[in-house]
Amino acid sequence: VKKNQTNVTGIEDQIIAMYAKGVSTRDIQDHLQQLYGIEVSPTLISNVTNKIVPLIKEWQNRPLQAVYAVVFLDAIHFKVKQDGAIVNKAAYMAIGIDLEGHKDVLGIWIGENESAKFWLHVLNELKNRGVQDILITCVDNLRGFSEAISACYPITEIQKCIIHQIRNSIKYVSYKDIKKITSALQPIYKAATEEAALEELNQFEQTWGQKYPLIVRSWRTNWAEISTFFKYSPEIRKLIYTTNVIESYHRQLRKVTKGKAIFPTDEALLKMLYLATMDVLRKWTGRVQNWGQILLQLSVQFPERVQPHLR
Description:
The chain is of the alpha/beta class. The chain contains 15 helices and five strands.
């Protein structure tokens, strides 16, 4: 590598590949030193990875499809240096399943700690990129989230994640009761119909309501958006009542980012998340399981919204 040389294509590809796997700058330096006997500075590594910034911008602004069957919205939290302090940042993620049953990451946005106001900004951006309609959104129980969705997509159905609801419920529970409570909640969301589920909720209240009134209140308050999935077939229920799709994507991202306790900038975080996402998307080639059956159900449930968009 000659002095002041700025383009070493083979080496650049390796640097980006290692960066995408979450390898630290120090380890990238060591690896290139051992393998090729060359010294690269942290600045060179940063400059090489900066070359993907225009690609991220292009990806983040690409046009999207007019209709998505399901969109999962969730955030993952990281520590980032800002103005000499270390602050918690949220990386907001949207995963869409289109009418052909293919999954795609619609975008990644870095913002302050998770808030409904920022989600409204994300949803408006999706709208500006061409998303006219979303049949069902799957979200956690963040306060104000539903209002943000309704402000942007007023006829979209909202399904609050059952797993998040259970996690929130056991916050109030003493350690010795956790297993009993999670078992007692199971018949509610495993019920065949909404009526049967409400019966199970009444049963839960009789057994545990006095000891844990906050759990009962939380399920009843959120019921309209927890119970959305009861109107659908088992195939659609399985897809929407947990945020499994986005949780497994988050697991892939955490594998890559776990070596980084603190990111130096928002951009450094975004670069790593983008590269990890490209790795994930390469593996997402097939359609969602049982998609033919799911699409049939959705086109009966939402005829005017689905059928005109089917090829």
